[in-house]
Amino acid sequence: MPELPEVEAARRAIEEHCLGKKITRCSAAADPKVIDGVSPSDLESSLVGKTILAALRKGKNLWLRLDSPPFPTFQFGMTGAIYIKGVAVTKYKRSAVSSTDEWPSKYSKVFIELDDGLELSFTDKRRFAKVRFLEDPESVPPISELGPDALNEPMQINEFMDSLSKKKIAIKALLLDQSYISGIGNWVADEVLYQARIHPLQIASSLSRESCESLHRCIKEVIEKALEVGADSNQFPENWIFHSREKKPGKAFVDGKKIDFITVGGRTSAYVPELQKLKGNQSKKVTQSKPRKAKSNKNNHDQEESDSEEEESKEDPKSKKSETAPGGTKKRQKKINDADDNGEKPQKPTKGRTKKQADMAVNSSNKRIKSGQASAPQKKKARK
Question: Which InterPro entries match (predicted)?
Fold first, then answer.
């Protein structure tokens, strides 16, 4: 999914080409999954006649400051992208719309024409992005819930080390937590950890001062280097793990060294075992996940997109936590609750017993209770 470098490149393109210009025409897609909390007609009528004063960003969120509120905000999701007609804006590989396609693209969610004829469009192929219209974007979720921006609000080294010393989770999972540092996603986290020679599963609080300093420096260097080339991944340095992180296991190498794949924080993670080793007590424990089995390139992309969908749902403030108990599905939990209400122990499916048979046993037990008929164990107890 687009991360800080891709969103910042889009912000800079808008800042360079669109500031001080008035919106003369606007059209919004009738897609309530993306256009969130405002009707397309209200969005269109509210934008026309407004002047763009600034393009702002925090983490992976971008918004336009107009001459009066409310302001349009863009959460890029998995495949959100900004296009300006006639202007080269970064192309995230899963967002890219061909230059030979119709304009605006069929994937366009918001199209804007400015008073000098310049046209821009926010597109989203997979429909995980969100476009909102807010009075004060920074005061409400998702932006209000973000941690300091990795580029614009970096922690000082002592503050960074102090915060890491209190985190008892894997460093990769911590970097992906947008409430801790905003803007770092899966590929940036993999890259900075590789450059800093830190294992993705290393517990944050166990990092040495040297590792903390290296990580702090690499976050800055990776983001700035990506932005130097306009977030064009084709121009990223050849010695970055980025170029091989989606190849098949066993065929992925960087500088001649093998790349392995594990799952950390729910995300597929690429690392180089020869250079990124677990240290301290963790080096003595078997805490590492099994390497990912070889899959086709298509399956690798599907896995990465599945991971991104999960991350996107976690970042969406409207996503609901599962109400399912750890013991099983909602239906199973309801049966347990019903059994508890009837004063009996819930029937559990046993080996050789089908779910249907287990359900019949529960129903039969309930009927006996309602009719006043004692069960076999109850009768035996009464005779005693």
Answer: Fpg-like_C, FPG_cat, FPG_Glyclase, FPG_N, H2TH_FPG, Ribosomal_uS13-like_H2TH
379, amino acid identity? K
What CATH code is carried by the domain that includes residue 123? 3.20.190.10
Residue in the structure block whose two tokens are 């309530």: 32
**What residue numbers bound the domain in which 307 lies?**
157-315
Residue 305 and residue 332: Cα distance in Å, rounded? 30
Instruction: Please report, to the nearest 10 degrees, the dihedral formed by the alpha carbons of residues 217, 220, 221, 224 taken in order.
Output: -170
Mean pLDDT, all residues of the chain? 83
φ and ψ of 172, to 5 deg: -65, -45
Say whether 60 is catalytic: yes
pLDDT digits 0-9 by tens, 280-314: 888 876 444 445 554 444 444 444 555 555 555 44
Point out the catalytic residue in the list 50, 58, 60, 130.
Answer: 60
Residues 18 and 134 in one domain: yes
d(CA 208, CA 164): 10
- Binned at pLDDT 50, 70 and 90, residue 110 comes out as very high
> Which residue, chain included where needed, has tokens 């059994």?
339
Q: Which of 3, 6, 311, 315 is catalytic?
A: 3
**Residue 34: CB atoms within 10 Å:** 23
Residue 85 to residue 103: CA distance in whole angstroms = 8
